[in-house]
Specification:
single chain; alpha/beta
Length: 219
């Protein structure tokens, strides 16, 4: 077993660790029907974006923004969260081995509070959590991951980023990290131009093999 403490693992939330992407697609299709934006594929366009960015880009009217936000929270409150395959085991192994772990999510504190009620042990699996409230720029801007690297006290070239959205892998790539794309939300061929590796699920992750790949990339 290798010493991996010089590295850090930075994770997106929805579609990487928890099974929620299909539900969010359904929710935003409902919202887009009730409050039309003119974009039929809104649920795809907004993946990886913060709520503030979604509202700014697609709902310029303040009154409509408030209604959309209220409807979103109403639908989110009905969601049930669970780990995706391999996620809990990977987080547990990282924690046992003392490897820095940071959650980087476009979700806000209200969403995280609800998530903590559904999966109480999830926050404790991370050294730090970067929510939408802590950044000024949404993915694909690298701000969130650059902040995560600082919190982990790890150079970005020694950080792994796990993402499932196009905005997310672009953010990790722009931050200078090694990006692992998790397909499912999007096909592997869409993610791969911005990734060092694409997997079908976190069940495929072998920590020592990942570090070996990074070391080769550094040469």
């Amino acid at each position: 077993m290798r010493n991996l403490r010089n590295f850090a693992f930075l994770f997106d939330l929805d579609g990487v660790l928890i099974d929620s992407e299909k539900e969010y697609s359904r929710i935003w299709r409902i919202i887009n029907t009730e409050y039309p934006t003119g974009f039929e594929n809104l649920e795809t366009l907004i993946k990886g974006c913060t709520l503030d960015k979604i509202l700014t880009d697609y709902y310029p009217d303040q009154e409509i923004r408030e209604k959309v936000t209220s409807r979103l929270y109403e639908l989110e409150a009905e969601m049930n969260y669970s780990y995706l395959p391999g996620a809990e085991n990977l987080l547990n192994e990282l924690k046992i081995r003392g490897i820095p772990r940071v959650l980087v999510t476009s979700s806000n504190v209200d969403k995280m509070k609800h998530l903590s009620e559904e999966i109480p042990d999830l926050p404790d699996k991370f050294n730090s959590i970067v929510t939408a409230n802590l950044v000024t720029k949404s993915k694909p801007d690298p701000e969130g991951y650059l902040l995560a690297g600082k919190l982990a006290e790890t150079p970005m070239e020694k950080c792994f980023v796990f993402e499932d959205s196009l905005q997310g892998v672009k953010a990790g790539h722009a931050a200078g990290a090694m990006v692992v794309g998790v397909s499912g939300t999007l096909p592997a061929e869409v993610l791969s131009p911005y990734c060092n590796l694409v997997v079908n699920s976190l069940e495929e992750i072998n920590l020592d093999e990942l570090i070996s790949k990074l070391s080769k990339d550094d040469k």
